[in-house]
Amino acid sequence: MEPAGGGGGGGFPADPPGAFVLSNLAEVVERVLSFLPARALLRVAGVSRLWRESVRRVLRAQRGVAWISAGPADAGPPQEHCLVRAAAAELQNVHILPQTVLYMADSDTFISLEECRGHKRARKRATMESAMALEKLFPRQCQVLGVVAPGIVVTPMGSGSHRPQEVEIGESGFALLFPQVEGIKIQPFRFTKNPKNLTLERRRFTEAGLLDNPELRVVLVFGYNCCKVGASSYLQRVVRTFSDTNVVVAGGQVDNLVSLTNDTCPVDVDGAGVAGLALSGQRVQGATVLLGEDVGDERAAEAAVQRLKAAGIPERHTVGFMFACVGRGAQFYRGRAHVEADAFRKAFPGVPLFGFFGNGEIGCDRIVTGHFALRRCGEARAEEDLFHSYTTVLALVHLGAAK
Fold this sequence. Notes:
Blueprint: H1 17-24, H2 26-33, H3 38-44, H4 49-61, E1 66-70, H5 82-90, E2 98-106, H6 107-110, H7 113-116, H8 120-135, E3 143-149, E4 151-154, E5 165-167, E6 173-179, E7 185-192, H9 202-207, E8 216-224, H10 231-242, E9 248-254, E10 256-260, E11 273-280, E12 285-291, H11 298-309, E13 318-325, H12 329-332, H13 339-347, E14 353-358, E15 361-362, E16 366-369, E17 372-375, H14 382-385, E18 387-388, E19 392-398
Parallel strand pairs: 2-3, 8-9, 13-14
Antiparallel strand pairs: 1-6, 2-6, 3-10, 4-5, 4-14, 7-11, 8-11, 9-15, 12-16, 12-19, 13-19, 15-18, 16-17
């Protein structure tokens, strides 16, 4: 019997044309590999040097932000939060290799307040178990920042065009996955309130990329446990240090900080302080708009969002954020749910929206693009201009177009 390749001579059969293409033509290999999720890419990178280099180029080209989200419909057994369950199932399908993760979840179920009320040790243990379970799912080199708040704003997985949900009550959460993008740096930071040492060292702000950084464009900032004595004033002191007119600042007050993997100091769920993300790079653009107490119906909300639309921020590779007061939502709009999220979607149908309902909002009308501010906050003091209650701050963060 002759070899399967035929032709006699006892030699090995010639490689089929497909094998030659996948072994020698980089453009074809990259095209094929672009359909694989990141974890699968890492597995096939060892096939050959060509494939390894192709995998690197494919991952480098993935600039878009991915996300994993879960809502009340995804709730399951009480011992595992729906966001942890969704991340375990969906991370293998993500097409980017996350470098930085920002996640938010509802306070009531993520930290098991109902089960552990009055028992501080049990509360801490329950909180850290959920946070650690989530952190373990992400790549080891990933920087993870996680907070919990009374309510969550989340866009369902699959497409930025899906209708965002304002989940004021119920189990919910999301994880935003930022890839490493050339020319853009996303740096988590934390300042812990220490009653014995309230000094704010300039060196720490510089190390966090918040000062002496000409490429700083956007700061997402969250004060946690601000109900503690002096915590609110500490938050204002920290933000005033970097709230320059050429930087977009947006965020608010959350209940607790539950994850910060790039910090050597362990997270104390009962501690107070300030945490966030500093986004730097010449191609980063941002804009914020403030919906005040006078914005009380659908028409007024849509008009306010048009101010954000007028900023002209590119919508590709862009994420929307919504930081609202717990006093707003459906109750504020006379029983109508998702009014502000729907107004955002109407203006930005392809941009996903994420955020929380908290106990204080940070932001104003401000646009930053290129090296300068097109619009800046008023001339009032920072604590009067940036810090609010009973309002909503909407923000756009654009990670830049590929060169």
